[in-house]
Amino acid sequence: MHRRRRSLVIALMALTLPAMQSAAAAAPAPDSPNEKDKDRVLHQLDVAAASFRTVSADFVFDTEQVDPVPDTDIQKGTVYYERKGSSFSMAAHISQVNKRVLTRVYGFFGGAFKLYDKVTNQVTRFSKAGKFESYIMLGFGASGKDLEQKWNIRYLGSETIDGIKTEKLELVAKDEEVRKVITKVTIWIDPERAVSLKQRFDEGPDTYRICTYSHFKLNQPLPADAFKLSTDSQTQFVDR
Predict the structure, then answer these.
(1) Calpha distance 74→122 (Å, rounded)
(2) Over the range 22-58, which residues count as b (16 or more CB within 10 Å of their CB) and which as e?
């Protein structure tokens, strides 16, 4: 149960919500090629974010626990992001967990972080997770300035994923409380669209989550239920 709760926090930021070991290698010198490439990528994100409105994509979230007991948790579904000015919403609609069909929705919309489980017909609202709100656009519509405000950034080069050239960035959260939850974030981002094709969230040396995204639909109308929960008169609401 403890592992599931911590994984949920990672997902909320990730989907976030997305930082590295704070004692990582020193940042490159201002005139180094890596620093120039980082500035180039961040500028591309500034340009792309200006026209970003919505995106939907299929996802696979693969959480691996190495110690104390090796374990794997694989979630599949569709994620939605929407940005309107300085406000935004996101939701991950999970349709399968470890090959078992089920329905869960979690994300930030309607001003709060929420988790809906259809099996238990329960909605959990996380009141203390508000400080992570600004992190959940990580790699989806975030500008270079947005990233620089919250993260220490290091450029790691380019890689091709599914035929698309991506730029690989390492991120260290400037907020100490965030670093306690996530020690490392690596994103493979397409700066021309301001979307991530892959993200890796490290929670210390023993647990990490790899998120991969495909079948992007950019700036198209989202489904009417993208940010709605299928609650009824029997739904239980729990605040944490």
Answers:
(1) 22
(2) eeeeeeeeeeeeebebbeebbebbbebbeebebbbbe
| Total count of residues recorded for the chain | 240
Query: Which residue ranges form the domains of the chain, and what is each CATH number?
Result: 2-239 (2.50.20.10)
For residue 194, what are its two tokens? Answer: 């301001």
Does the pTM surpass 0.90? The reply is no
**Which residues have CB under 8 Å from 22's CB, separation 6+?**
172, 179, 183
Sequential pLDDT tens for the chain (240 residues): 444 444 444 444 444 333 222 223 334 444 455 899 999 999 999 999 999 999 999 999 999 887 777 788 999 999 999 988 778 889 999 999 999 998 999 988 877 889 999 999 999 988 766 666 666 777 899 899 989 998 999 999 999 999 999 999 999 899 888 888 888 899 999 999 999 999 999 887 788 999 999 999 999 999 999 999 999 999 999 998
